[in-house]
Amino acid sequence: MSLLSSLLMLIVAARLLGGLSARLGQPAMVGEILAGVLLGPAVLNIIHPNPSLAGVSELAVFLIILSAGLEIRFSDIFGAMRGRGMLVAVVGFALPFVAGLITGTLFGHDLMRTLFLGLCISITALPVAVKLLSNLGILHSRIAHYALATAVVNDIVALFILGILLNLPQQQTFIDTLATIGTASWKLLALAAVVVALNQLLEWLDRREISVHAVPEALVRYFGPEALFGIVVIFVLVFGSLSEMLGFHFVIGAFFGALFLDQRHFLASRYEELSGTLNSVTTGFLAPVFFAYLGLEFTADAFDDLSFPIVVTLVSVASKVAAGWIGGRLVGMPRQEAIGLGCVLNGRGVMELVVAGIAYQNGFIGQGIFATLVLMGVVTTLLTPLLFRCAYPGKALEAYRQEQASGLSESR
Questions:
Q1: What residues does each domain of the chain span?
Q2: Span 53-411: which CATH code?
Q3: How far is CA 384 from CA 68, 73, 318, 377, 394, in A?
Q4: 31-76 pLDDT tens trace
Q5: pTM of this structure
Q6: Measured over all CA atoms, what is the biggest interatomic distance in the chain, rounded to whole angstroms?
Q7: What are phi and psi of 26, to 5 degrees?
Q8: What are phi and psi of 284, to 5 degrees?
């Protein structure tokens, strides 16, 4: 089957099942992954993974990461690293990561597979957390503050560790491995330092009331308003290329480059236009292709031992809820509120699937672990709103909304 015919079938099926999933109150990506499973070798065997579809999927990963980076501001990162939010973030990442390492070791997996298992279990996806908190009407609550801080830090740390893992040697001595980790860490820190320095430069210009958005406006006047999206993509691609030159996956640099972009760099109308174009291309076209492609790579015979995916999913849920509860209690949250925080942290979504896909495509994990991670990502994302409503059933959620709203109005 030709590439265009395959894309047509994938997009139509992904959009239909994604829309159905959204109508049922679940993330659209769940239906999009199921579309790939349905059309792929696991069920109908109509479309098979191939290099052409993999190339489109890689472009989708780039734009998904660009969208995620645009949702986070530098102020969000620095805010998350200040005060008690950092304590919750550390517990929210470390406890699930260790639980994943123990699980992988108990099932006899090697170090690399175990590390990727722990990494995927420890992730909390920022877009999933934002959407859930917004749907529940508690986006400005204390749970939201700590959940979003944890998600921001978790995503940054996950990409940092991913960059190091992708640079580890295959067969070298312990000393050589440590040297590689040290070199990779310095390269990543240098890349991050470039982005932070550019951000500081922009803040310096802002303080002196120098118009930052004059540059993109001049480019738009020269190339035309339709060129804004292309200009932004080229800018982020430069960071992605720099990342690859340093020996990392392009996703690492793309994420840092997207973090650098901020609403203050554009006129408000331009930023809305950019966001609309990016969402149309990503959500409307490439993201469904990416998630459907993950479904194509999902095969039922990858589960030779059902105990492994079951245990991984249970450990993923339990470790995140426990991490949220422990972190919440450490910063003085009541028991119910701390459990609610743990439930929100359980949503892994896009970022976990991106990391799993990169690990699989680079040969660091096999099809069995990849299928398990896809299943875990989907199941935990599905369970997140259900678990939260168990922690805050019926009137309890409304009471919490009113309590947080009154506290917010008093603080103002």
A1: 53-411
A2: 1.20.1530.20
A3: 20, 25, 12, 11, 16
A4: 888 898 899 888 888 998 888 888 888 788 788 777 766 766 666 6
A5: 0.72
A6: 63
A7: -115, 160
A8: -80, -25
